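Issue 218. Parser rejects a valid record. Input:
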Amino acid sequence: MSTPYGSPSAPLLRGHLGGLRLLFLPRHGPDHAIAPHRINYRANLWALREAGVREVVAVSTVGGIAPGMAAGSLVLPDQIIDYTWGRESSFFDGINAPLQHVDFTRPFSAALGLRLRKAAATAGVALLEGGIYGATQGPRLETAAEIRRMAHDGADLVGMTGMPEAVLARELGLEYAMLAAVVNPAAGCGDNQDGISMERIREVSAQVMRDVVSLLAMMGADDGG
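Output the parser choked on:
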């Protein structure tokens, strides 16, 4: 699919998960080759909206900063701090569309978050509610000092793709919520005092994604598809 903002990261895949009808778009591309700061977030959200999507569940792997955000946890964050720079972060940039200022007080959809919480409870999946997601530039991981700064700012989680994805969804009128899969303690936290193991991240990611699949499948069962 082409958009006024270029091509999305990959073709949209239409299918079913349990009783849930869905479109799947891998933001990093089919081969996970697109760096976070090079993702065409505007094309991705535009393509989803044009394909009829009205609700977006952003599945994101993150590092845990707060003590309660242990590896293997699944979190439904409710706030964002944006540490990124240089990304095309608005449709209303005064060039492609007239300048507008959208309200972003609550960056995630309360209604979609409620559906995710109910589905998690029904599926027996532990879902931590609330938390501040800090969006960093990537693709490198953070220094221990940067994580200390983020913790001082109040961030509980750290990831690289939540912004501008969340605000672009808001500008298009899409309901947007995030399922943040904690796959490692952030730099300098927990047992990551001396470094982060990418092999361990892959292992934990595979485990927690099974919970994500169970939760999303139950959403379809709860709303009749």
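Fixed in the parser; the record now loads. The chain has a mean pLDDT of 92.
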